[in-house]
Amino acid sequence: MIERYDPELEAAEWTEGVPAVEAEAPRPRKAHWAAWTSSMVAVGAVLGLVIIGGLKFVSDPVEANGKSLSHEQASVAPTPFKPPTNQLGALTFTFSYPGEFDQVAQSKNSSRALEQYMLGSKANYRHSIAVEVNPLVAGGLSGDSSYRTRQIHPADYRETQEQIGGDLVATMTKVDKQEQAMFWVHGDKVLTVAITSSDAKDDVAAFMALIKKSVRWH
Questions:
Q1: Are residues 114 and 105 in contact, defined by beta-carbon separation less than 8 angstroms?
Q2: What is the per-residue pLDDT across 94-146, written as a single tens digit (0 to 9) for each?
Q3: Do residues 97 and 86 lie in contact, with contact meaning Cβ atoms separated by under 8 Å?
Q4: Which of 41, 46, 85, 138 is the most buried (most CB within 10 A)?
Q5: Measured at the alpha carbon of residue 201, what is the angle toward residues 197 and 204, in degrees to the nearest 5?
Q6: Contact 174, 156 (CB under 8 A)
Q7: How far, in Å, CA of 51 to CA of 157, rounded?
């Protein structure tokens, strides 16, 4: 017997052993929006923490370095240095002078000088202090040869005069500021102190100011 082909029967046979797939019910739109919003909030929170952490990393080292730099600058900043002083105790006078002049030699280069000294430095040969006491000549300070030599060259020297303890003190300063000479008239004597220096770091006027304020006659 010839069987007839039934397409509906064949389709039923093909699908008979296959389990049915249940269609997933569509999620409500509100639930989808709530889930998306929660995700964005979480991402935003993480991003905010990352930004805050980055800003802290950037700002904190700058502040720390600034403090350490200030501390370092304070530690290496130069402090005012007051050099020690020495004292020259001569027969007729005494005065203090900068301690860097650590050599004292007594000499007698002039027959009319009552006292003569030369102050030098072991570490710096470019500066010296010449000191002498001479009798005051009849013509007064203008008759002193050392004073007169400078006075007749006004283009090279500037003179100032002052009274200290009733004594006349004249100071001759060379225009290049590498030399300053003081002539202190005391009774029948004149104390001459001449400072010369070719060292640019020396303050010749400060050296002389120290000596001038410390002079004491015996």
A1: no
A2: 999 999 999 999 988 888 899 999 999 999 999 999 999 999 998 899 999 99
A3: yes
A4: 85
A5: 45
A6: yes
A7: 72
| 208 three-state secondary structure | helix
> How far is 159 from 151, CA to CA, in rounded Å?
8
The CATH number of domain 85-217, selected from 3.30.70.260, 3.30.420.60, 3.40.1000.10, 3.40.800.10: 3.40.1000.10
Q: Which ranges in 2-101 belong to alpha helices (H)? A: 7-16, 29-76
Residue 194 CB coordination number (10 Å): 18
Element holding 170 (H helix, E strand): strand 167-174
Q: Where are the domains of the chain?
A: 27-76, 85-217
CA distance 211 to 102: 15
> With bands split at pLDDT 50, 70 and 90, how would you rate the model's confidence at 208?
very high
193 vs 134: CA distance, rounded Å: 11
